[in-house]
Each structure stands twice: as C-alpha cells, then as structure tokens.
Amino acid sequence: MTTSTHLLYLIALPLFSSAFLLLLGRIADKWGHILATLISASTFGVGLVEFFAMRSRSGDARAATQRIFEWISVGSFKVDASLLLDQLSICFVLLITGVGTLIHIYSIAYMSHDRDRRRFFAYLNLFVAAMLLLVLGDSYLNLYVGWEGVGLASYLLIGFWNERPAYATAAKKAFIANRVGDIGLSLAIMIAFTQFGSVTFAGVKAGAPHASAAALTAIGAMLLLAAAGKSAQFPLQSWLGDAMAGPTPVSALIHAATMVTAGVYLITRSSFIFDASATSRLLVVIVGAITLLFGAIVGTAKDDIKKALAASTMSQIGYMILATGLGPVGYAFAIMHLLTHGFFKASMFLGAGSVMHGMNDEVNMRKYGGLGKVMPITAATFGLGYLAIIGVPPFAGFYSKDKIIETAFNAGGTRGVLLGGAALLGAMITAFYMTRVFVLTFSGEKRWDEKAHPHESPSLMWIPMVVLSIGSVASGFLLSKGSALVHWLAPVVNSSNVESGKELMPPVVVSALALGVVIIGVFAAIVKYRKSVPLEAPTGSLLTRFARRDLGQDDFNHNVLVRPGRAITQALLGIDHKFVDGIVRAVGWTLSYLSISLKKVQNGYVRSYALLMTAGAVALLAAIWLVTL
C-alpha cells in the first residue's frame, strides 16, 4: 500500500468549484460554465496521472491511501476521513471524470439559453465530487457520505426546472426511493460494526471469514437493498423513468457515469461479504435477473425516447448486478460492462438530447422519423451506441454482455440454465426495443409537423458524442484483450482464477446464441416498424398496456407502501389525538375546574378573609397539638 498526498485533489477540485459558483451567484453567470468544465477536465487529468502512477507500481504497492484527518473517535469506534485508490476505484474515477467532462462540454451548448446555467454547472461539479468521494472512501462510513451527496445532487439536478410541478415531483420521488435504499446501507454499517468492531473495508474483510452466516447474510441483504435503491433495481426501480424530467445531460451523467453505477460498485467493493454468503449471492442474482427482464419489457412500450433509454439502463444495470452475484468469476465482467455501458449509454443519451434540441424538446418518437437525413452526425453516433448496446460484434457491448451471458450459463445446473436463459431473453428484447428506438427516430418518412425544423446540433454538442461513440466501438475490445481488466481487478475481487471455471458451453456457442437472438430481435422490430407509424399509440395488447404503465410498479408502490403507510399514519394520529391529546386536555380541564372553584374564595369581603384566616389558624394549632401528643 502506497501513501499519497494527491488523492484529495480529486474530490476537492470539483467540490470547491461547486461551492464557489453557488456562493458567487450571478456574478459568475458569464463564465461559471467554463470554470466548471475546466475543473472537471483537470480532475480527469489528476485521475490519469494517478492511473499511470499506479501502473508503474507492482503488487500491493499499486493501491494508494491518504489520511485526511481523524473523523470519529468515541471509545472503540474510530474512523478516519481517509481515501483509497486501488484498481477498482481508479476505473470509476476515470469513468466519472472522463465521461463527466464530455457531458460538461456538451452542456455548455445544450444549456446556453438557460438563465440558471451557472447553477446547473455548479450542481454538475457537486455530482462529480460526491460520486468521487463515494468510490474513494476507504470505509463504509466515508462511502456513505458520498452516497448521500450523490442523492442530494441528483435531487437538485432532476428537479432543476422545479417551476414545473411534474419535474419537482420526479425529483422528490427519486429522493424518497433512494432513502429506502439508504436505510439498508445504514443498517449494514451498524451490523458490520457490531460484528467486526470496524467499518473500514480492510477491517470488515479481515473479519468476514470468522463471522456467522446469519450476520453475513444480513449485511449482504442490506447492501443489496442499498444497491437496489441507488441503481434502480427491483423492487426500488420506479424512480428511474420519472428522473428523465431533468435536463438531458443530467440523464446522461446519472445513467452512464454516476448514480446508477454506485450499486454495482458497492456490491463489487463488498465482494468479501458476498463471496462468504451463498444466500446473499442468490438474492443478488435473483434481483439482477428480474430487473434485466423488467427493464427490457418496459422499454418495448415507451414512446418517450428518454424513458426508453432509461428502461434500457435499468435492464443493463440488471446484467451487471446479475454478474456480481456470480462471484469472483463475475465481478470483473460486471465492471467491464459498466465501463462499456458508460460510453454507449452516454452517447445515446446525448444523442437523444441532440434530437430534442433539433425538435423543440419533443420526446415522442412517433413524431420523429427520417431524422437521419437532417441530423447525420447524431444518427451515426447514436447508431454506434445502438449497435454496442445490442451486442453486435465488434462493438463494445458484444465483449462485455456476452461474457456475462457465458458466466450465467456456467453457473451450472438448473440455475445456470435459468440465468443464462434470462440473459439471452433480455438480449433479444434489448435488440427489439433499441431497434425500435432507432427506426422510429432516424429512419422512415418524416412525421413531424411544420412547426418543427430539425437540424444538426452545434459542434460543442456533437464532438462529445463522437468521442463517446469511438468508445462504444473500441472499449470492449481494449478491456477484454488478453483478459486485461480481469487481471487488473484480480487483487481487489479475487478474479485471478476466472479462466479456470467450468464451461457449460464453449464461448463460441454462447456468442452464436447471443448473436442469433439479437438478429431475431432486430428483424422483428424492423418488420413491425418499417411501415407507417401512427402518431398516436395504438391500444395494443394487455402486456403492452401493462408495460406502458411500467408493469404496475407505481400501482404496486401505492397499494403496498403508500396506502398502508397512510393507514398507519392515520392510526397513529388517532392514538395521538385520543390518548396523548386526551391526557393533555384532561390536565387542562382539571386545572381549569380547580381554578374556577378556587376563585370563588376570592370574593373581596374582609369578613370572609378573616374567617379563612381564623380557620387556618385553628387548623394549624390542631395539627401542632396532634403532633405533640
């Protein structure tokens, strides 16, 4: 382990920039966006320096730490504010700052007409700083601070245009749903401290082999709950579609580089817990498998281009969560898919923003059509991301998603068949709905009205899209070449023996199956949407109508959580009103009655007062006499 004095810059630069822009106010309106972008780029530069410094070291010396100050010291509970940069966290640092900087550049043009652009960029810097703290903290408590910071930043950015009630509601929904997951992380930290006397990653890892199965399962389940909330996984996925209310660059940042990737990081960072608890791993793969299918099915019925992409994120994160539940053999592939997903999903979200920019903020794909002719750069960059996400070789998703499908099959037995089958089915549905998105948007005849004047976006918007699309093409090959990422992450997630696992199917067979289902999905979408598309969505089948309503997730939350919550609240209010308030009212009534009774004695007549004084004196003498007997 190497001691560093530079890690703090990774967090301090964007954090101080955010505070500076917010405190300076309107004075910084003309140049605040430039400062925020330069700071983000500088942070990426620091990350690159640390990456190459890490590569120059070997063995255990690659990981670097920096102790900032003693944070908590109460009895045996001692926690330092310390940072840890190792092979896992550097992957996230480069993704967050690299993709984040491209999104900053894109936002300069996208938000150019917004009077609050400075505040928007301040929030972007805050988002980057919070996510960096999350992945750099050396303990669960330090991670928790970044975890909450990410929740705050997402709330501020999703509800950035909070003068619109729907946007403010979407921000609150995301914030509340994440608080449910945060309860899980809080409980996991508490259980870890009671079991191991430490909340640092090193301390918990050292104690995990000696902990009881029940304790490990409890910690694992609570960490999974936290991951489900932050990464929009079943059953806490309902907030993600509504979160598209924020400006499109925010959607790109949330989906590609920051918030929804946090759950994957948490589980991977806690690999020593899940490796020691088979029950926790089983819960993880169940959640991942359900979510990858859930998101894919929802994506088939969305006409809003951003909500279709949001559903795809839910599904793709489901693949990553599934992979992490497959143990050491899957962690590296989960991170590989996370990194490739960062490129192609950011590319597509920024492409969606480019389309909206040219279509007067119209999001209904049924009112697009033929945009590839008037927006060729947007169509090309979006198309490369589309080919990457559906897993067409040699694009990025082919390398990362195929490895997850292969690993799922190699789980063995009925479990392997079910998980591998779910992953293949998800790949086919992904190919269908993403082809639907591309065809409805960029091909066919135009369906927009005369008021729309679609045009290619300015260079500050399409240049980041081009850079990200290059990553959509090359990142999968580079990360998988010679199992580069697997070996890089081996010291952190114990994936060094990944190649020695049993093979249920040869990789070439899995790739052929995956490519086969992709072709089926693409062909089905082209056949269905190649002809004229009605401007209004048809009624459709029962499943289609159900998918449009997000498979009833909001109905489920309302009936299972909201209505019982209201009933419990009303019951507690009744107890408070009848019992607590009743006691208070009884005390008040008693004192009032006594005061009314006693005030009759104060009548103003001297003879009455004399009589009372005489009676009092007689009573006092009688008492003295009785005591002296």
What key phrases describe this protein's structure?
mainly alpha; 73% helix; globular; 3 strands; 25 helices; 629 residues; three-stranded mixed beta sheet
User: Helical amount among residues, as a percent range?
Assistant: over 70%
> How would you sum up the major sheet?
3 strands, mixed
Indicate the structural class. Answer: mainly alpha
Low-confidence stretches: none
| DSSP strand tally | 3
**Form type:** globular
Strand content: under 5%
Distance between the termini: 88 Å
Name the strands of the widest sheet in spatial order. Answer: 1-2-3
Summarize model confidence as the mean pLDDT.
Answer: 91
Treating each run of at least 4 consecutive H or I residues as one helix, how many helices?
A: 25
Q: How big is the Rg?
A: 30 Å
Order of helices and strands: EHHEEHHHHHHHHHHHHHHHHHHHHHHH
How are the elements arranged and paired?
Elements (H helix, E strand, L loop, with lengths): L1 E2 L3 H18 L7 H25 L7 E11 L2 E9 L1 H24 L6 H20 L3 H19 L6 H32 L4 H7 L5 H18 L8 H4 L5 H9 L5 H8 L1 H5 L2 H22 L5 H20 L3 H31 L12 H4 L1 H15 L5 H14 L3 H30 L16 H22 L3 H10 L13 H23 L12 H7 L4 H47 L6 H23 L1
Parallel strand pairs: 1-2
Antiparallel strand pairs: 2-3
